[in-house]
Write a structure and sequence with these properties.
11 strands, two-stranded antiparallel sheet, about 300 residues, Rossmann fold, single chain, five-stranded parallel sheet, alpha/beta
Length: about 300
């Protein structure tokens, strides 16, 4: 019995030593992630590096719609697109809070879709960036507030936290480095231009609370917030009504282009798939947002992003 206990302790000590070693080396490699334009590398840039006057938040609909270079060229304000495919309001909040540790954006552009405020993307929004737990304060605080005790326990293990990291890190380090602004263009035209109507819609309390925190954070820091519903052939009327009511009650600017007749009447030309604009449509939508940003710039006499020492 004594020998068994000794062996168990030895095994435990070896696992603990491996966990510590993996954490030390993994964190060091993670914090040197190159800028290459992949989703995970862009998440690192958004959570740790980038600064901008105009911060774009949202899911793939933001990532494939708003073009920072066009915004910068037209307004004179720096811009960065932090949209991440399949991520909800919880991830958007984490990115905003992370930005505020480095600088104060003057304008936040938030593209909102139905899945961002339901439970559809609640877990993968965190799972996809779990390797930054303990390194990024907003992410760590979110998990401590909303994560289960099982998730918190697992994330305290470096072997678990970093278990999916090697695959994308190896890919990131085999791609030539380039300066990225977060925008990912979609090329090609949609063949089937039928409008798809969805009837199911039910909000998730955590995602809605994160949305409210985004609004409160912007107001607290005097950041101008514009919420967009980008054009989409996947129509959820209940979501659009909910979003319009939600923003109106909180005095938030909402630009609902979800069923914009201009884009719908030219959908064979502007859409890449049923839920995303192609590069041509993205330029049109970015031009619309530029007009809105210019109005805010004129009203508020905005300057450049305020960097924190």
């Amino acid at each position: 019995m004594k020998k068994v206990l000794i062996n168990i302790l030895i095994i435990f000590a070896i696992v603990a030593a491996c966990d510590i070693a993996v954490g030390f080396l993994g964190n060091k490699i993670l914090m040197g992630t190159p800028e290459v334009g992949t989703l995970q590398a862009d998440a690192y840039q958004a959570m740790f590096k980038k600064k901008a006057d105009v911060l774009i938040l949202g899911s793939s609909r933001a990532r494939h719609t708003f073009q920072p270079k066009m915004i910068a060229d037209s307004t004179g304000l720096t811009a960065y697109n932090a949209g991440y495919d399949g991520h909800g309001m919880n991830y958007a909040l984490i990115v905003l809070q992370s930005f505020l540790e480095r600088c104060k954006p003057q304008v936040v552009v938030l593209e909102a879709c139905a899945a961002m405020v339901t439970d559809e993307w609640l877990n993968n929004s965190i799972d996809d960036v779990k390797h930054f737990y303990g390194l990024n304060a907003p992410l760590t605080n979110y998990v401590k507030e909303y994560g289960s005790w099982q998730l918190q326990a697992k994330l305290n293990s470096n072997l678990y936290r970093l278990n999916s990291t090697p695959t994308w890190l190896v890919k990131a380090r085999t791609i030539p480095s380039r300066e990225c602004d977060g925008y990912e263009p979609q090329y090609g035209n949609l063949a089937d231009t039928a409008i798809i109507n969805f009837t199911d819609f039910e909000t998730n309390d955590i995602q809605v609370k994160c949305f409210e925190q985004i609004i409160e954070t912007c107001k607290k820091h005097n950041i101008k917030l514009i919420v967009y519903i980008a054009p989409s052939l996947e129509v959820t009327a209940k979501f659009q009504k909910w979003m319009n009511d939600f923003c109106a009650k909180r005095d938030v600017i909402l630009k609902d282009h979800g069923c914009d007749p201009y884009f719908f009447s030219n959908r064979h030309y502007y859409f890449n798939d049923s839920d995303h604009l192609n590069d041509i449509g993205a330029r049109e939508m970015t031009n619309i947002s530029i007009g809105d940003i210019k109005v805010l710039v004129k009203q508020s006499a905005l300057g450049v992003a305020q960097e924190y020492p």
